[in-house]
Design a protein that fits this description.
Mean pLDDT: 79
Structural class: mainly alpha
Low-confidence stretches: none
Radius of gyration: 25 Å
Largest sheet: none
Number of strands: 0
Order of helices and strands: HHHHH
């Protein structure tokens, strides 16, 4: 384990968990391992996920980065239909007419 992993495991072992939860068992099992043990990629990913969920219970000296797909670093992919509705609303055209024109261009102007 790296020094950061060891510090994180020690801090997470002091956090509160639901009784019998997987996260609690996982962290307590890691805390019982010897200092020179190595963690697999999946174990490290799970450790980072738990650390992110318990970040408010950790001490002030422990910095946690969000795992992929969580936190403010993940981008929101807009729904194309919602984008069309917003553009039509912003353009001032009736939404129904604009959507019909987008879906069936051969029927332009018919409602």
């Amino acid at each position: 384990m790296t020094d950061d992993q060891w510090t994180l495991i020690r801090a997470l072992a002091r956090c509160s968990y639901y009784p019998g939860s997987f996260d609690k068992r996982f962290i307590h099992d890691l805390a019982e391992k010897p200092r020179d043990a190595t963690l697999s990629e999946k174990q490290d990913a799970q450790l980072q996920r738990i650390a992110w969920s318990k970040r408010r219970q950790l001490g002030p000296g422990i910095a946690v980065t969000p795992p992929p797909g969580q936190g403010s670093s993940s981008a929101v992919v807009p729904n194309p239909a919602e984008v069309r509705r917003l553009r039509a609303w912003n353009a001032g055209a009736p939404i129904r007419e604009r959507l019909i024109d987008d879906l069936w261009p051969e029927n332009e102007g018919e409602v």
